[in-house]
Amino acid sequence: MKIIVNVFGTEFTLKRPVNLDLQSPTLRDVLLVLQRDEQGPWQRMIKEDLSLQEGCVILVNGRNIASLKKLETQIHDGDEITFTVLVAGG
Predict the structure, then answer these.
(1) Please, are residues 2 and 75 in contact by the beta-carbon 8 Å criterion?
(2) pLDDT value at residue 90
(3) Which H or E element spans position 27?
(4) In angstroms, rounded to a whole number, what is the distance separating the alpha carbons of residues 43 and 47?
(5) Are strands 13-19 and 63-64 parallel, antiparallel or unpaired?
(6) Nearest partner of 26 among 71, 82, 89, judged by Cα
(7) How far apart are CA 59 and CA 19, in angstroms?
(8) Cβ(63)–Cβ(27) under 8 Å?
(9) 60, 75 contact by CB (below 8 A)
């Protein structure tokens, strides 16, 4: 399975394809693999217990996981997972 990982932070921006040897994974499964096997700036945004650092969010195909099934959101081939910091303005 191939997914796209995007990271938008105050000090970095990344868009990278990642190949995963997973079938029917949840976001939790993907995060565990990324945390264990892949090096990247997303590691600054997720804690060891897979919770997020304060002010960070994860989007799956542009939707906040809080409005989906959080870590139990199903991930499919070609999905985009975006790690970003919250931004406010007016």
Answers:
(1) no
(2) 64
(3) helix 27-37
(4) 7
(5) unpaired
(6) 71
(7) 18
(8) no
(9) yes
In the chain, the number of structural domains is 1
Are residues 27 and 65 in contact, defined by beta-carbon separation less than 8 angstroms? yes
What b/e sequence results for 4-28 when a residue is b if at least 16 CB atoms lie within 10 Å of its CB, and e otherwise?
ebebeeeeeeeeeebebeeeebbbe
Q: Which residue has the tokens 């565990």?
A: 32
- Copy the structure tokens of residue 46: 């997720």
Half-sphere exposure of 61 (CA within 13 A, CB side): 10
CB 6 within 8 A of CB 14: yes
Tokens of 63: 């939707």
CATH code of 59's domain:
3.10.20.30
Residue 90 covered by a domain: no
The 10s digit of each residue's pLDDT in 36-89 is: 887 888 888 999 999 999 999 999 999 999 999 999 999 999 999 999 988 776
Extract the tokens encoding 76: 């499919």
